Amino acid sequence: MTKYVFGHPEPITAQFGVSEFNQLLVRLRDRGCSDIFFKSDDCIWARLDGRMTRVTEDEIDAKIIREHIARDKGEGYANSIATGTPSSWAYRVRESAERTGRFRLSAASIADSSTSTGFRLVCRPISALPPNFNELDLPEELKSALVHENGIALVTGPTGSGKTTCLFSVILHRLVYGPGEHLATIEDPIEFDLNNLPEDLESIRTGVIGQEEYITNVAGFSVALKGLLRDNPDVILVGEMRDPETIRLSLEASLTGHAVYSTVHVTDASSALARVTMNFPESEQTNMAASLISSLRVITCQRLLPKLGGGRCAITEYVLFAPEDREQLKVAFMKGGLIAAEGAIRERVGQGIRAMSFTQAAKQRFDQGFISEQQFAEQQLEFGEWRDHQ
Is the pLDDT of residue 386 over 70? Predict the structure, then answer.
């Protein structure tokens, strides 16, 4: 039997305009969906409790998706996507005089069966504020490492694993409760607007923040970062390590007294070093890897697992880098390159030396009653750590 988010298929009317589109986004958000998928020549889908679930039985065509993009961003923007330039942007739904719903929209062109150009549009609900940092269920040593004075913290994981939410929980904490810092972010797009805090937080805020949005405010991450460094920020968040110049500038900032945060798309903490370094030509990789190792303070990698009773919970693999850890990692890298460095990180994670593996994190969630025994076993098997934990 086909499962639907609302228990039955939602209709797609011929007049599926902005009002219908907005209402559907809000209803799916309120139902607990983390992503809503519009793909031409397919029914509408949503991710509910981590599982892809149908919303409609009827298919949606490319024309309707394109109209929504053009209505919000303009014909030129829609044409750019249609000709092969994927894009992301913030989208707002005015729900009432007091409440505005926020979503992150990502669109790309695809091939479909009815037209020469189809579209894919993914909508992700965004909370008004990230969760309270002190209430995140993270080990205390990891929380301390994430509020670092200088160097770089890499928050990694697959798409939709909560990297941005975790990062902005840290940024909000530093903005409101920190020692009085100048914080700056470069995002694509801005997800959490920290310039408009609730009065209870605004009245005790100790820092200043500037948020810049790729495309809207600046021509590129590296261009924005060059400008930010002239403004002397204490804390810099770079939305993604996406190109050599951005990575180079981020590392320079982290080695000259700034606390830098960024994200990398990898599936475990040990892979982050190679993923960042491989953005550079082979002739530069040794120097860039050495710079990254010198600046590392913490690498985390997060996954979301189905939670017993509904929803999802995070498991976080992490490894912290004290001065002696960085020195040992440099030695491993100089002896055996990236493979040896990855092996050294993986060994520390497995041994739990200022670190925690996915299996150890899953064991905690299992003991807390958050995940099933099957979910725990799957994590053990995936990471080659199957053993009796009964």
Answer: no
